[in-house]
Amino acid sequence: MRTRLLAALLCVAVPGAVSAQTADDLKNDHKTPGDVLVYGMGYNAQRYSTLTQINKRNASRLAPKWAYSMNDQHGTEAFPVVKDGVIYVTSHNMTAAVDALSGRQLWRTTHEYPPEALRTVCCGIVNRGVAIYEGKLVRQLIDNHTIALDAKTGKEVWRTKSPGDVTTANGYAMTSTPLIANGVAVVGVAGAEFGHRGFIEGYDVNTGKHLWRHWNVPAQGEKGSETWQGSTFVTGGGSSWVTGSYDPDLDLVFWGTGNPSPWNPRTRKGDAHWTNSVVAIKPKTGERVWFYQAMPEDPFDYDGVQQPVIATLPVAGKQTKVVMQANRNGFFYVLDAATGKLIAANPFGKVNYADGVDLKTGRPRYNDVYRKALAGEKVEVWPSVSGVTNWQSMAFSPRTGLAYVNTLHVGMTYEALEAPKEPYKPGQPSGSGTVRRTTVTEDPNVRGYLIAFEPLTGKFRWKVAQQVPSYASTMVTAADIVFSGTMQGAFEARDANTGKLLYSFQTPSGIVGQPVTFELKGKQYVTIPSGIGGVYSMRSGDPGLVNVPQGSTLWTFGLQ
Questions:
Q1: Helix count (H) and strand count (E) of the chain?
Q2: 3-class SS string, 255-281
Q3: Which one in 34, 269, 479, 542 has a CA-CA gap of 20 to 30 Å to 400?
Q4: What is the Cα–Cα distance from 263 to 259, expressed in whole angstroms?
Q5: CA 239 to CA 220: how far, in whole Å?
Q6: Is the backbone peptide bond immediately before 212 cis, with ω within 30 degrees of 0?
Q7: Do 503 and 62 form a contact (C-beta atoms < 8 A)?
Q8: CA-based Rg of the chain, rounded to a whole angstrom?
Q9: What dihedral do alpha carbons 420, 425, 431, 433 form, nearest 10°?
């Protein structure tokens, strides 16, 4: 009797006492409502929870339970990880463990950078979270290090710098969350706006040993190099700054890659493989199995890094495993997960540079707007450089069959300048300044929508207009509730079937982070960071953001 009682006591989750997170734990993350272990709430990245305690009848009774100060002015895009009653959250320069019931800090580790490291970060000094595996928290640092911390104490276990000339001086910066797949920490890199050659790479999760690197831009003479003119591959772009997804059965990691560099298309010719693509990679080796390029020869910086979502959909009468991506270029793609074959591509916002996507070739049907842009003429282009959606991740509900996406409704005037005589060099700004752009709107009071969208048909189930576009990710539950936040600071719960607002709470700053939900001691909670930041808030001039203060906090909500 005493032995059984002692064993039971030892199994009770105590904040700060972290049990092992095995490969099976990560694989089953989407089935375990008490923990949130994988970026995207499961390897499939659906951001879907089976929890139903918070429902349409009682969502109006939500209330904040606690808030934790993250002491950061740069913006909070982090994905909170939850394990055994502890929430792990990051900013660009700290990692913290917080008691999930009280908000009490359990430990906090500060990460210091040389001054020059932060001066060369393009589009927001942020970090998007940690990966957890076998008692270790693995994260990236802006100065291109991947590190592991002990989840119980926050002490550093290993640290590895990305090898070679991967430095902030050459335009590289690391801001995303690692993905633990088949024992490998797969990571990406930001910084195409400083003319680097982007990549995805893998590290041994136990030792930090660098295992492989997949260059998203082929070198001269390699397969795919024929899609680059001359030596333009040297500053090729192809960032990978948002985390991918993983299918354990196929043993494939799906990762989105960014725009070619520089933005100005008059300095380079060709499709520019493997930029603006979804690539499928073997996590043990980095071998590329397939790729699908959404935007060949991209002149508009339609960075295709959005997290791919894995689901099973009825395709031609057959249940088919697919990869879906709500792409910045304005098309929603559905691909066969095993082969990369294009199944569907539908616009989910205003697009005027192409008349659709050819399902046979997979290529956009570019029109005169696109052709004039490549020729250097001044044109009005939809969407703007910010895209129909940006880096924020969508949610998908297998119950409703709908994708829930925060979108933008903003266009731009665009003019590609004459190509300079001197070639661009790594580390040199190669984004704005190589083209001229100004913002265009149809209605200054509607710059975005939260949408519910049918992936295969392209039909909108509903749309909610937003004065300021939201850069928060969405999350949906089996109770048919969508959780998200606005850049003006409102944490919201909406009916997933109609878009009706069920609950709203004003947080101190704008929300550009990622909500998660979990169950602890029989009660459901929702956690979301607040703290405005990112390139839109810094550079858009959106009048709706004038009175939104900075400052990052982590909020947890539950029923009263």
A1: 5, 38
A2: EECCCECCCCHHHCCCCCCCCCEEEEE
A3: 34
A4: 8
A5: 19
A6: no
A7: yes
A8: 22
A9: -40
Spatial distance between the Cα atoms of 560 and 144, rounded to a whole number of angstroms: 43
d(CA 227, CA 235): 14
Place of tokens 């910066």: 173
Angle, vertex CA 396, rays to CA 333 and CA 320, nearest 5: 60
Distance between alpha carbon 482 and the CA centroid of its chain, in Å? 18
Lowest mean pLDDT among 15-29, 54-68, 216-230, 278-292: 15-29
Are 515 and 486 within 8 A, CB to CB?
A: no
Question: Which pLDDT belongs to residue 192?
Answer: 86
Is the CB of residue 254 less than 8 Å from the CB of residue 246?
Answer: yes
Give the dihedral of Cα atoms 262, 266, 270, 272; nearest 10 deg. Answer: 10
Distance CA 279, CA 257 (A): 8
Active site members: 301
| Integer Cα distance of 40 and 496 in angstroms | 18
Given a cut of 50, whether residue 117 has pLDDT beyond it is yes
pLDDT tier, 17 (very low <50, low <70, confident <90, very high otherwise): low
pLDDT digits (tens, 9 = 90+) for 21-75: 999 999 999 999 999 999 999 999 999 999 999 999 999 999 999 999 999 989 9
Res. 282: pLDDT tops 60 = yes
Are 233 and 174 within 8 A, CB to CB? no
Cβ contact 356:346 at 8 Å: no
Q: What is the pLDDT of residue 16?
A: 55
Residue 49 near residue 478 (C-beta atoms within 8 A) = yes
For residues 114 and 423, which has the higher predicted lDDT (pLDDT)?
A: 114
Q: Report d(CA 71, CA 552) in Å as an integer.
A: 6
Residues 344-361: pLDDT tens digits?
Answer: 999 999 999 999 999 999
Record the pTM. 0.96
User: Domain spans of the chain?
Assistant: 16-55+62-559
